[in-house]
Specification:
The chain is of the alpha/beta class. It contains 14 helices and 18 strands. It is elongated and about 80 Å long.
Length: about 450
Amino acid sequence: MEKIAVGLFGLGTIGTGVVQVLRENREVIAHRLGVELFLKKIVDLDIETDRGIVFEQGILSTKGEEILKDPEIPIVIELIGGTGAARKVVEAALSAGKHVVTANKALLAIHGEELYKTARKHGVKICFEASVGGGIPIIRTLKEGLPANRIESIYGIVNGTANYILTKMTDEGEAFDNVLAEAMAHGYAEADPTYDVEGIDSAHKLAILASLAFGTPIPFDQVYTEGISRITPLDIEYARGFGYKIKLLGITKASDDSIEARVHPTMIPERTLLAQVDGVLNAIYVNGNAVGPTLYYGKGAGAMPTASAVVGDLVEIARDILHGGTGRVPLGAFPEEYRQPLAVRPMDDVLTRYFLRFATADRPGVLSRISGILADFGISISSVIQTGRKSDGPVPIVMITHTARERDVKEALNRIDALEMTADRTVLIRIEDQEGEEE
């Protein structure tokens, strides 16, 4: 059987998973493709650590040129991570006329447009199914599954660590810090969990999804990003009382002349499918104007699910090589001439509903004072809960607003938080009723 050689940079968790998938599913992959994919060379800084795999003599190397300068290797897998060495490897591979498969969401979110340009210049492909959603085929769905649709919105749970933490907080009433420590102990969170819990990882993935959905470059620094570290069991309990769950969502929506791109904790109706996605699982809700709402659900991380996506990209590229073409599907889902810049709407201009929790002195007139300030900024109240004193400390007043502009809400809260009767900064959590419900 004919063979196509592959070079792999990075032999960490995902790289080891790729080796396993190519070995364990070797026969079924060959039967589907018609040729055999084989790893000719693997490059990593550490080739001494035991990965639990026996490698053929000479396959491991610390020298990148053994892949980049080998004319017999037409496909390169980049699993180094980050935007430093990984970017150099990807650019060098593309410039050498080699196709690239990567799982590197940070690289694509920040430098994707440049890499697309380099790939087009040299007549090769860069595939990145594994960059968002692990084993969920969401990139291919946006590129090839829904081309008949104008994508109207995407809501994504795209970080398993954050979803695990919020699920445990919801189910067990534990505080954020306690659940984070448990997640780290079980290996669900990195030693430095900042990218996961502060929304940065989700923002990388959202930038990629929005770019493909709307055919526009998304400057990563324009994606509003807010994490889950300020969420408390009290807020989760109030959300439940209003019929909502709190999830860390990546949200992007299109209008005629701009798009929204934002990551933040979000209350969504607990009856929706997206609200039922718990633990380390991911789910991405895509709404197209023809197909309507669709949901893509599964394992968003881990060695084998992510390796499944990487090898899927290898098969796609190998098919192109076999049939002599690479331009069938545009790298950015739209041909270059139709990828038009759209403004990313400033967060201050976003319209949505809000959950507000005030900490105030327990005395007459507090509620009317707060309501009056909100009214001054055109913010109307849908629901309110005011509890009596249970201790000597401040008491909570909880409100759900009707749709309001972010700028108006922030300015109103600045004025309220400056009041003498306000004991702490107001908690704000945005609400998304995906199907347009107004409570």
